[in-house]
Amino acid sequence: MRGGFYIKLAAAGIGKNRKLYFPYILTCICMVMMFYIVVFLAGSEEIRTLPGGDSLQTMLGLGIFVIAIFALIFLYYTNSFLIRRRQKEFGLYHILGMGKRSLVKILIWENILTAAVSILLGLICGVLFSRLAELAAARIVSGEIGFGFTIEPKAAGMTAALFLCIFFLIMLRMLVYIYRSKPVEMLRSENVGEKPPKANWILAAAGLLILAGAYYLAVTIDDPLTALLLFFVAVVMVIIATYLLFIAGTVALCRLLQKNKKYYYKTKHFVSLSSMVYRMKRNGAGLASICILSTMVLVTVSSTVCLFAGTEDSLNRRYPRNITAQIYSMDEESYVEPVRQEIGRVLEENGEEAENVMDYRLLQVAAYQAEDTMYFDADAAAGKGVNVFSNIRNLYVIPLDDYNRTMGTSETLEEDEVIVYATKGTYDYDEISLENCGTWKVKEKASDFTGIGFESANIAASYYLFVKDVSVLQRIEAGEAEIYGDNMSEAEVYYGFDMDCPKEKQVEIYDEIQSAVTAMSGADAGWPSVMIESRAAESAGYYGMTGGLFFLGILLGAVFLFGTVLIMYYKQISEGYEDQNRFDILMKVGMSRREVKQSINSQVLTVFFLPLLMAGIHLLFAFPLITKLLMFLIATNERFLTIVTLCCYIVFALFYVLVYAVTSRAYYKLVSGKKEKEN
Question: Structural domain tally of the chain?
Answer without folding.
Answer: 3
